[in-house]
Design brief:
five-stranded antiparallel beta sheet; about 130 residues; globular; single chain; 5 helices
């Protein structure tokens, strides 16, 4: 498994706001928020689906990871997505699991850090839903 996704009755905007607050409570800041349909429309491409990507980071964790393995930075910052599924109309919140990503480095020393980040991010998502 490479991801963790939950379903919520909230709108995409409500879920994004709840997620931003929950992440802040866990010392993760939102570095960047990308509204994919809006960005695509700037290029003349229409996407008939709400889809927001948040890039989030805990600076202390980022320093720890990068101090150990600079190539682990290829997976930073963490991405969390919020989207309305076209088939069901339900809002989903999900992330790529840090353990899956950092395992690709082959650096076993990153595993405990990835597990801690993953548990925290999952808690934040569960609280936001």
């Amino acid at each position: 498994m490479f991801e963790h996704t939950v379903e919520t009755d909230k709108s995409v905007d409500e879920a994004v706001r709840a997620l931003e607050q929950s992440l802040a409570n866990h010392k993760f800041g939102v570095l960047w928020k990308l509204d994919i349909p809006t960005k695509l429309m700037e290029k003349g491409i229409q996407l008939d689906q709400e889809y927001v990507v948040l890039e989030v980071c805990n600076p202390d964790v980022a320093k720890k990871v990068l101090s150990r393995n600079q190539k682990a930075g290829y997976f930073l910052p963490c991405k969390v997505v919020v989207y309305k599924e076209k088939e069901t109309g339900k809002t989903h919140i999900g992330l790529t699991l840090p353990t899956a990503l950092l395992a690709l480095t082959g650096d076993e020393g990153l595993k405990p850090v990835a597990e801690d980040v993953e548990a925290t991010m999952i808690r934040a998502i569960e609280e936001a839903k």
